[in-house]
Amino acid sequence: MELVKNWIIQIAYISILSVIFEFMIPSSNLKRYVKVVIGLIIMITIINPVLNFLKGGFNINNAVISSSYNLESFDVNTASKEANKQRDILIGKEFKKRLCEQIKSRISSKINASNIDINLDIIDDINDKNFGKINNLYIKLTNPTGKKGDDDKKIENVSVKITNSSNEKIDLNDIKNDISTFYNVPLKNITIKEN
């Protein structure tokens, strides 16, 4: 279609230029010859695409490749949109994982526990303006033994068996308040369980 359009535009340009050139030539015997030459140029312009087609200058493969390129570009756009969706999902998962690790670290700095399990519900749609906001937080502490202090030191090459030597009462409300303040989560949405 583009070839036909270009061909017609080329014929129109040559016709306009030939008319302008004809007006510029004075009336004389030379004008006849100029009209013949202009007529030949216009005929060559009209016949040239047909001759190229007959010689094999027009390649049907080019038309097929052009249409397949359009299909491929459509497939690339579709694949790009799907990749963006997958990227957003992965960003949400990675954010949630790192947030859990950060909360565990924050709790570990306050108390001693053999295991801290975090389960949280966040807004994980990256396009949402509240992305990352914690809706609900469930914390499970296994064997909490008391608050951590500056005097806790690790001594190597010494075997000591201690069974609940810490008599400090763990105040879960302190942990709850700390997390609520730091992460801007309502207290009613934070649940802490001890095992």
What is the molecular shape? rod-shaped
Largest sheet: 3 strands, mixed
Helix % is 55-70%
Strand content: 5-15%
Instruction: Give the beta-strand count.
Output: 5
> Low-confidence spans: pLDDT under 50, at least 5 residues?
150-167
Order of helices and strands: HHHEEEEHE
The computed structural class is alpha+beta
Per DSSP, the total helix count is 4
Spatial separation of the terminal alpha carbons: 76 Å
Give the spatial strand order of the biggest sheet: 2-3-5
- Please give the radius of gyration in angstroms: 40 Å
Mean of pLDDT = 77
Structural write-up:
- α1 runs antiparallel to α2 (30-55).
- Residues 150-167 have low confidence and may be disordered.
- The protein has 195 residues and is α+β, with helices and mostly antiparallel strands.
- Strands 2-3-5 form a three-stranded mixed beta sheet, covered by helices on one side. Strands 1-4 form a two-stranded antiparallel ribbon.
- The longest helix has 49 residues, at 60-108.
- The protein has helices at residues 2-24, 30-55, 60-108, 172-183, and strands at 111-112, 115-122, 134-142, 146-147, 190-194.
- It contains four helices and five strands.
